[in-house]
Amino acid sequence: LKLETIEKRKAIKIKAAEKLKKATEAGDTEAMKKYAQQTSRLTADMVSESREMLHAMGVPTVQALGDGEAQAAFMAIKGDVWGVASQDYDSLLFGAPRLIRNLTISQRRKVAGTRSTIVVRPEIVDLTETLTNLEIDRGKLIDAAILIGTDFNQGVQGIGPKTSMKIVREDKFNEHKEKVPRYQQVRDIFLNSPKISDYSLKWAGVNAEKLTELLSANKFSEKRIEKAIKSLQKAHKQFSQSGLGEFL
User: Fold this and answer.
1) How far apart are CA 157 and CA 142, in angstroms?
2) CB atoms < 10 A from the CB of 211, how many?
3) Span 206-226, average pLDDT
């Protein structure tokens, strides 16, 4: 089901590439910037290079069997990590006890399709607290999300957040169930996604030599690399002394 979503996103990127070509020919710089952003894609090489960079920084990585947020939520449920950092609320559907949004160094985010940025602050969403406030359980939260639409289904036309919550609170989901193709299959993704238990989350020291090699290969200046490594080593030391609670 996720592959279907990915294919649709590919189609959007292809259309954006066509529009980018026309904008380039017309010399429309604003449109060029807009459509260039829409054509960006993540490749296997990018993922591999990112993991290599993280390891050089001393940061542990885990290769998920399926959806990455399902694996992250699983580790949070086990208590091996404090929470899941993501912009996607799907982490809560997978059962993450805490979702951390807007976890950025710059504390700014670009507004889609523009050159503007907005100030963002870290936000912590507690699953238990959220369910209590909404007066529903996780199963109903999943059903409400399915009605609206997730990464695995398009949702039901005409049903938004308020309506979906009203439906699940009043136990009327079955009246709309037939409108959701492969409902049980979508629901099972959030409840029974494959996860791995054999992983290590042990942090390591900064591998300055490897990090220098990787950054040099990407044309970073020697001075900038040295500064970045010193900053990272300092952060490692502070983090080991204070922990995540103080960081947030």
Assistant:
1) 17
2) 20
3) 91
How far apart are alpha carbons 101 and 88 in whole angstroms?
A: 8
How large is the C-alpha radius of gyration of the chain? 21
Q: What are phi and psi of 94, to 5 degrees?
A: -80, -5
Rounded to the nearest 5 degrees, what angle is found at the Cα of 12, between the Cα atoms of 142 and 29?
125
Residue 127: Cβ-neighbour burial (10 angstroms; 0-12, 13-18, 19+): buried
Element (H, E) at 38: helix 29-38
Q: 80-114: per-residue pLDDT in tens?
A: 999 999 998 999 999 999 999 998 777 777 776 66
Q: At what angle do helices 222-242 and 208-217 cross, to 10 degrees?
A: 140
What does DSSP assign to residue 84? Answer: E
Three-state DSSP class for residue 130 = helix
Let me know: does 81 contact 72? Beta carbons within 8 Å.
Answer: yes
Question: Residue 159 and residue 243: Cα distance in Å, rounded?
Answer: 42
**Residue 39 to residue 105: CA distance in whole angstroms:** 25
- What DSSP string runs through 90-118? HHHHTT-SEEEE---SS-EEEPTTSS-EE
